[in-house]
Amino acid sequence: MCAYECVAVGTGLKCLGNSELSPDGDVLFDSHAEVVCRRHFLTYLYNEMNLCLDSSSSVLRQSTPGRFKLAPGVEFHLYVSQAPCGDASMTCLDRSQSDDTRKANEEKKRRFISRRDEEISDESPANKRPKTEMHGADDSVSLAGPPTQSPSAPATQSMDQSDSVADVSPECAEPLVVSSANMVASGVLRGRDSYNLLGVLRTKPGRIDADSTNSLSCSDKIAKWMVVGLGGALVASLMDPIYLSTITIGAFYNHADAYRAFIDRLEGIVDLPPLYRVQVPEIFHSKVPFPFSRVAVTKNENTRPISADASIGWSSPSDDSEVTVCGRKQGFSAKKAKNNERARPSISKLSLFKLHQEVLSRVNPSAASSTSSQTYRQAKQANSEYQLAKSRLYVGRFAGWLICDPMYEAFKVEGSANTE
Q1: Helix or strand holding residue 227 (H, E)
Q2: What is the DSSP string of 355-390?
Q3: Is the link from the previous residue into 130 a cis peptide, with omega within 30 of 0?
Q4: Which residues touch 106 (CB under 8 Å, ≥6 apart)?
Q5: Residue at 123 is within a domain
């Protein structure tokens, strides 16, 4: 008999703009639900590694001394309350908009482009922004145990659908299709721009008038996990890759879109290193309404939903959830959070780096001593097989993957940024 256990939950729909980022690893750049939940899942894995070393984990086993793998029969499943931002939701978002909403969005776009062009014309050549570097990314899910037909898993609330108020799944049976000649093969589109271009990389946020970011959409990040696994470079240095067995989507579901976003786009990826593969998850549609979705809330005529600034996350076995606002623990402004450990989210890059170092010090003290002098980026780059798997992914439709600027990964495990 299959048994399910909720191990991580995330909510959220905000993403820090490029002007708000921190070089110290203490702030969440991307607080969309799927990303928050996946990062809490990493804290769950580190806890299970410690339990395994104490011979008390039912989830992990040691494949070799100091290296972990999943116990037989253990699988993980993702539930998202509505289609992830990016490629998996383009068709339904397009068709869900009323004519008035579409006109309002076009006006927003026109004003933003006009204002941006005026700012650019005022810049001297020396002050113009550099082009974004390509090929690379930051490590960017509700999860449960083995499924039968319909996986049961806890809820994540995905992306800002502030311009849409209807669950349009039934109307999305036939997606818009464009020829490969019209695709942006090696580039990246911003947010919801050019709905008719499918299968392409997109950045957050969806709104054209919001501060730009280099964070790829949740659709793109989930697709990445289908190749390199859920763990990221640091976790992958300690255990075999972990893949999602199923993905279940609530509102704004279209099977063709989901299949293209998470499976079809990965065709042709070959020559992966040992243990890595192109995972093909089963994809399901849940028709059970998520009670806190915009669709459900707007059914009450006296309720006007407002996009929340806060993000909430949790992982097993903690008794407490964690609330973050603008990438920091709730209650701390950017000024108060500076060099304040209490303001640092448990799922920030620095916090996860510390968890990795703690496990590594138990399984390989000499390696832990070496890592303590490395920057976060150097520690990730040291996992050569993971980096090779990423390089195999960043071809074809993923060739334009955006790199996280090295300055934001130059901090060390004790928290100091390397300015050399």
Answers
A1: helix 218-228
A2: HHHHHHHHH-HHHHHHHTTSBHHHHHHT-HHHHHHH
A3: no
A4: none
A5: no
DSSP state of 305: -
Bond prior to 205 in cis (omega within 30° of 0): yes
Question: How many domains would you assign to the chain?
Answer: 1
What phi and psi, each to the nearest 5 degrees, are found at residue 392? -70, -30
128 assigned to some structural domain: no
Domain residues for the domain of 37 are 8-117+133-409
Measured CA distances, 310 to 116, 327, 403, 411 (Å): 28, 9, 26, 26
Average pLDDT over residues 64-75: 95
Cα angle for residues 320, 323, 327 (degrees, 5° grid):
140
Dist. CA 200–CA 86, nearest whole Å: 8
d(CA 35, CA 176): 27
Q: Which two tokens mark 326?
A: 């603008």
**Interatomic CA distance for residues 143 and 329, integer angstroms:** 23
Q: What is the pLDDT of residue 24?
A: 93
In a domain, 24, yes or no: yes
Residue pair 11/312 in contact (Cβ under 8 Å)? The answer is yes
- Please indicate, yes or no, if residue 417 is contained in any of the structural domains: no
pLDDT in tens, 122-167: 654 444 443 333 343 333 345 554 333 333 333 343 333 333 323 3
Q: Which of 39-43, 185-189, 324-328, 368-372 has the highest mean pLDDT?
A: 39-43
Place of tokens 């070393």: 53
- CA–CA distance, 248 with 83 (Å, rounded to integer): 9
Are the C-beta atoms of 19 and 211 separated by less than 8 Å? yes
Please report, to the nearest 10 degrees, the dihedral formed by the alpha carbons of residues 98, 101, 107, 113 taken in order.
-100
In this prediction, residue 145 carries a pLDDT of: 47
pLDDT digits (tens, 9 = 90+) for 85-97: 999 998 887 776 6
Q: What are the DSSP calls for 241-263, one per residue? A: ---EEEEEEEES--HHHHHHHHT
Q: 């293209």: which residue's tokens? A: 260
Answer for the pair 239, 188: CB distance below 8 angstroms, yes or no.
no
Going by the DSSP 8-state scheme, the letter that residue 185 receives in this structure is: S
Mean pLDDT computed over every residue of the chain: 81
